[in-house]
Amino acid sequence: MAYIPTHALAGLRNYRYKGVDKSFLSNYVLNPFWTWFVTLWPEWVAPNMITLTGLAIVLLNFATLSFYDPAYLAEKGGAKGPPHWVYFTWAAGMFLYQTLDAIDGKQARRTGMMGPLGEMFDHGCDALNTTLGVILACHALNLGRSWWTVASQVGTLANFYLTTWEEYHTGQLYLGVFSGPVEGILMIVTIFMITGFAGPTFWDQKLLTLTRLENVGWISSHVPNIGINVCFMIFAGFCLAFNIITSYMNVFHARRGSGILVVKPLLFLLPFLASVLLHLAWLNQPSLRNPDIINSSAFVPFMCAWGLQFAHVVGRIIIAHVTSQPFPVWNPMYILSIVGAIDANMPILFDRPPLIQRSPENITKFVFVVLALSFVTYARFVVLVISDITNYLGIACLTVRKRDANGVWRSAIPRAPISGEKRV
To answer: What pTM was estimated for this model as a whole?
Structure first.
């Protein structure tokens, strides 16, 4: 077994999903809609197929960006992006993704397909959507190829990593009063809608100027007049800080209640910090200040390669969680970032030009090679893990089927209740 050792497979049968959702919007507004919406799906549709459909919709949004803006020309201060109507399709697609991501668990309960495979599949699609959502949202905010977009990538991945890290150490998925899957996605949907009406340059307006607060003496002298998009980034930073504190407090209480050391889990945040530093170092091109990766068409492939590597990392954490294995610290995917970072900083480290990334053309070629390797490696991971889980548990991935004691495939849909019997 490449990713799940034979001795760890037994943990798959002991896994039980646990979740806490404290979001007001989720519990009192969206959940009634989700409960109704799932009834529109036939019981022969597999939960993982619903999850995959949601990801396909976001990929379609990304495809429209690639079609209308193939070089990602939306630089700060002058977007040359898609027509305004496309942003409305992004809003609809992101909302549909959120809806399908919410009902796949409900469909799993309807069809009797609850289990670790759904957990892995759901988190894997969410991890991929994280980077795609960042690219689309920063395009709509007219941040384009900039360090603000990189900061948004770091913050969004950090939130997802924290959630996965927290679930591993507490045994349950915790969504607070403000979470990325609920309020965060709805904020992005709102951004897409506003951009559809007003255009990307709307977000460049100074907040105090737009609100007329620059005419108030005390405010204008104490509050910097910055763009709305920058204000949004600052707000996201505060949300990240809040989530860091909340996640650790949840882990702290869970570990203290079980009599286990409460400091050790913090050490498992270091691999993510190291990966961020590696990618930031790679973006630094001391010998090629203009153009570098951020100012070139290699920027989006770089972000996608980073996202695939991240999805691989959190996928292994989820596998460790559902099979009760030790927390994975090292991931071979880091090697790609290490090579890119060291090569880009050869002038600083060894006082010589890069061996690979000597020119803008070579940088672009190298980034695309890393993107291809990241995709192939992650795809291999997904195929092998799905194969291990389905073979061991005797279930299908994209159809509602299970193998019976004789090895014959049967429908996993619970039978209809007989007269006088309640179906639980």
So the answer is: 0.90
